[in-house]
Design a protein that fits this description.
Length: 268
């Protein structure tokens, strides 16, 4: 026996022909598959890829919604403009009202001051009237030349009309601060209990007619014919008379020469 007989051979065992054939078939199939895949990949790589995007179709409903949205936007803009105009108008009105209020306050203050002054003047005039009436009554008892009787009625009438000097002439006025001619006479003689008629025509025939050359203080002077006189006043002595003359002079004391009367009546 050879000395190498017990050592395994270093040669690879021989494969059977069937095994080799099977493996060759598998390899051939794999290579075929790869070739097909490669060819397919090359073909695909050669053709560009195209992607189609479909846009939404503008349907009738969508168009209506767009139109409605636009209309709503326009309406909102119009409302905003209207509100802005209203706010501007309100601001202007508030400013004007504030100015009117300030003017009204100033006017009210002015009127209040004028009323206060007028009240003070009336109070002063009333006090003067009281003093004059008292003085006239006191003097009437000691001076018969200025009155027509012992009661001093003429002096009281004269004191009253003189206290009204400066008052306004107003047609139909019967006092206390504005008079017409017959209204002043009626109120003056009422102070001594004589109830004269209201108008000058009737006053010119009330009492006894006297000559202008024989006048006494307290006589009623008239202008025009007796029974149709258009003006009356009272004679206060010393060639003077007091009457509510006209809107220009108001109640004033004038000489007989200023406007000579037509006649006179005596009621005291």
């Amino acid at each position: 026996m050879s000395h190498t007989a017990h050592i395994r051979s270093h040669r690879k065992p021989r494969r059977s022909a069937s095994t080799i054939a099977m493996r060759a078939g598998v390899a051939s199939g794999v290579l075929g598959t790869l070739a097909v895949a490669t060819a397919a990949g090359s073909a695909n790589a050669a053709e560009p890829v195209t992607q189609t995007l479909e846009l939404p179709v503008l349907t009738g409903d969508l168009a209506a919604q767009v139109a409605q949205s636009a209309q709503a936007t326009q309406q909102a803009a119009a409302n905003y403009q209207l509100q802005a105009e209203r706010d501007a108008a309100a601001a202007a009105a508030a400013k004007e009202a504030k100015k009117d209020l300030a003017d009204a306050k100033a006017e009210a203050t002015k009127k209040a001051e004028a009323a206060r002054k007028a009240a003070a003047e009336r109070a002063t005039r009333a006090a003067e009237r009281t003093v004059l009436s008292t003085s006239a009554s006191d003097s009437s008892s000691s001076s018969s030349s200025s009155t027509s009787n012992a009661t001093g009625s003429a002096a009281a009438v004269i004191a009253f009309v003189k206290a009204q000097i400066g008052d306004a002439y107003v047609s139909g006025g019967t006092g206390p601060n504005s008079w017409d001619c017959s209204g002043l006479m009626q109120t003056a003689f009422k102070q001594v209990g004589v109830d004269l008629p209201r108008v000058s025509q009737d006053q010119s025939t009330f009492g006894t007619q006297v000559s202008l050359d024989n006048l006494q203080p307290g006589d009623i002077l008239y202008w025009g014919s007796a029974g149709s006189a258009y003006h009356v006043a009272v004679y206060v002595g010393d060639g003077m008379f007091v009457g509510a003359q006209n809107p220009s002079t108001g109640v004033a004391e004038k000489p007989l020469s200023y406007d000579p009367p037509t006649g006179a009546v005596r009621v005291l």
